[in-house]
Amino acid sequence: MLLENKVAVVTGGSRGIGYATVEAFIKEGAKVVLCASRQETADKAVGKLKEACPDAAVEGIWPDLSDYSAVKAAIDAVVEKYGRIDILVNNAGVSESTPFAQYTVEKFAEVMDLNVKGVFNCSRAASEHMVAAGSGVILNTSSMVSQYGQPAGIAYPTSKFAVNGFTLSLARELGPKGVRVNAVAPGITYTDMMRSVPKEVIEPMIAQIPLRRMGQPEDIANAFVFLASDMASYISGEVLHVDGLART
């Protein structure tokens, strides 16, 4: 197994890409702590995972990711229980599409607090333990819009541009200390949000993808497994696009 006995924390782990990543990590032998926004969503996700795999080493926590003190306390508790933290997946985030003329300062701050500040808080807290151990992997969820932008909802692509810069810079800083930092940039992925999009909207989007299909959460989870594993031991500072597109 690629992640046998590794200890991983996955934010936004109760649904979608995060849930698929938790599930994939468990199958590869990791002990996983998933973060959710509320206790009930964390408990529901853990229950579902244990129902599918009763022996799964998984538990849920629900710190406010925009509060560094809360995040540090949660990460420290994980390390106290398991002895270390080997992998952090910063997957929690929020996307929206408010037109710029209707944007408020509060809405912009809400997106940036979770998508950027949350990544900083979790990475800052986890990296202390990783640097002390001389090893670790930090993985961030970016997006295809970090390269192309999007026609509305300016805070989301802005936040993902920031995640890319954070990833590249932190990889340079922590590499000499034994910590790898990478990001995965999903394309159009069939999550709960996409299930509510009308067929007539989705089909033209799929037609633009050479593989002629949307990504599945498992496609993104597999990329996280690879980057978290020793198979990617010489990969750091990369933003891996998993979007089915052909690039020149």
What attributes characterize this protein structure?
seven-stranded parallel beta sheet, 9 helices, alpha/beta, 248 residues, 14% strand
Task: Provide an overview of this structure.
The structure is a single chain. The chain is an alpha/beta fold. It has 9 helices and 7 strands, in the order βαβαβαβαβααβαααβ. The chain has a 7-stranded parallel sheet, with helices on both faces.
Oligomer: single chain
Mean pLDDT: 94
Largest sheet: 7 strands, parallel
H and E order: EHEHEHEHEHHEHHHE
| Termini gap | 35 Å
Q: Approximately how much helix is present in the residues?
A: 40-55%
- Number of DSSP helical runs: 9
User: Strand tally, please?
Assistant: 7
Uncertain regions: pLDDT < 50 for 5+ in a row?
none
What structural category do the secondary elements indicate? alpha/beta
Q: Strand fraction band?
A: 5-15%
As a whole number of angstroms, the C-alpha radius of gyration is 17 Å
Instruction: Write down the overall geometry.
Output: globular
The strand order across the widest sheet is 3-2-1-4-5-6-7
Helix and strand arrangement:
Blueprint: E1 7-10, H1 16-27, E2 31-35, H2 39-52, E3 58-61, H3 68-82, E4 87-90, H4 105-133, E5 136-141, H5 145-148, H6 155-174, E6 179-186, H7 192-195, H8 199-207, H9 217-228, E7 239-242
Helix pairs in contact: 1-9, 3-4, 4-6
Summarize the structure.
The chain has 248 residues and is α/β, with parallel strands linked by helices.
